[in-house]
Design brief:
mainly beta
Length: 124
């Protein structure tokens, strides 16, 4: 079992930035795929970004050029740098992980390990 704990959420104004973190209970190099997903009230959960063990990344079209997913090897932490935030980005953000590295893209939500989420609120 892998425990994931998200942090870094908060409230910012539109155009601002936030960095989300996801701490893992095991060495991050053991995880073939990690990703960020989000769910806004009344909406379905959607993929945001994923990263494989080889550090290749995939992004949802809605966040390309604004969000960056990365892994901090020494810190066993997954990050999501978010800039130019829009009220449409408001949601609960979840970290997810799998041992396998295929499939691994924002459209794939059947990862076995999930955190409890961190809330991001963007005001206009």
């Amino acid at each position: 079992q892998v425990q994931l704990v998200e942090s870094g959420g908060g409230s910012v104004q539109a155009g601002g930035s936030l960095r989300l973190s996801c701490g893992t209970s095991i060495g991050i190099s053991a995880l073939g795929c990690m990703g960020w997903f989000r769910q806004a009230p009344g909406k379905e959960r959607e993929g945001v970004a994923t990263i494989r063990s080889d550090r290749s990344t995939s992004y949802a079209d809605s966040v390309k050029g604004r969000f960056t997913i990365s892994k901090g090897q020494a810190a066993n932490t997954l990050y999501l740098e978010m800039k130019d935030l829009d009220p449409e980005d408001s949601a609960m953000y979840f970290c997810a992980a799998a041992f396998t590295d295929r499939p691994c893209d924002p459209n794939y939500q059947r990862m076995p390990f999930w955190g409890k989420g961190t809330l991001v609120t963007i005001s206009s």
